[in-house]
Amino acid sequence: MKDRAYESLSNEDEVRCIIGQAVIELSDEHQPVNKSTLSLKLLSMADRDRDDERVLLYWIARKAINQPHQLNISARSWG
Asked: Which of 22, 56, 70, 71 would you call most buried, defined as having the most Cβ atoms within 10 angstroms of its Cβ?
């Protein structure tokens, strides 16, 4: 049986890392960092990734950027 609390924390950390990676890429490309550019960058990163679970994390990261008050990763069921 998997430890859901550990798994949720791990996914939350991954989402934070994905957002950070997007910010770094935008900065390296001399692009402004705002909700719009960050959301588009996350879409393009998801489009390049072949791992379905990771693509889901990109979508969760986009939701965290656009609707941070509605996001509760720890309540999500991962399996």
From this structure: 22
| Cα–chain center distance at 1 | 26
3-state secondary structure of 74: helix
Sign of CA dihedral 48, 54, 56, 62: negative
What is the share, in percent, of the chain residues with pLDDT greater than 70?
75
Retrieve residue 58's tokens. 């990109």
C-alpha to C-alpha distance for 62 and 59, rounded to whole angstroms:
5
Show Cβ contacts of residue 50 under 8 Å, excluding neighbours closer than 6 positions.
none
- Give the residue ranges of DSSP H helices in the chain: 4-28, 35-48, 52-66
